[in-house]
Amino acid sequence: MKQAGRITGEALILAGEAVKPGITTKHLDDIIRHYIEKCGAKPSFLGYGGFPASACISINDQVIHGIPSANTILQEGDIVKIDVGAYYRGFHGDSANTFACGKISAEAERLIRVTKESFWKGVEQVKEGNRIGDIGSAIETHVTESGYSVVKRYVGHGVGQELHESPEVPNYGKAGRGPRLAVGMTLAIEPMVNVGTSDVIELSDGWTVLTRDRKLSAHYEHSIALTENGVEVLTYIE
Ligand code: MG
Ligand code: MG
User: Fold this and answer.
1) How far apart are CA 18 and CA 22, in angstroms?
2) Which ligand has the minimum distance to the alpha carbon of residue 186?
3) Which of 80, 89, 91, 123 falls between 20 and 30 A from 105, CA-CA?
4) How many CA atoms lie within 13 A of 236 on its CB side?
5) How far is the CA of 215 from the centre of ligand 1 (A)?
């Protein structure tokens, strides 16, 4: 899991560094696929449920599951969500981040910051004996107190030998509810945060999810492990 996580995290950083005006999302996807394959791993998303690329790349009001395209050219001011998975020696890593393309608005900056903060608020709740609801409650509380909303239609998840495993890890919920956390669990925690409504719609391409009110959305995800020594964030690169 650590090795798969490292490859995933490194691929995401490489793609993030390439985000700039004039670049296509297909180019970012190529960077990710080449790096993952160079490491002897496989892109987890390629062919998953028929998904046609190695990464999901979603811009501005697109929440998740955007399909990279040679026709999608990044513009100054875009916020670019890149979601990556790598499968290595039997295990998956899963991680996402939101990158600024050139100079972005103050609102976009704040949205990205609050989304990251909410992830770490969730991670603080990952300890033996706590419950899944503690994670979601901490995320949702920080997001709503910041004036934003969490997407409810899509959630985090267990990650390991399969990309998506039980339990579901919602970005909302009640503290003290849900499955109990135990040493050895590996989870993908991934707040999706909207400036406006939490409602989302799916495009006719069968993949791209966007906000119903077409306002901005941000995403931040890491795969984490609960160990005897506490939490390890497997896809986080120092
Ligand atoms: Mg992901
Ligand atoms: Mg995930």
Assistant:
1) 11
2) 2
3) 123
4) 16
5) 21
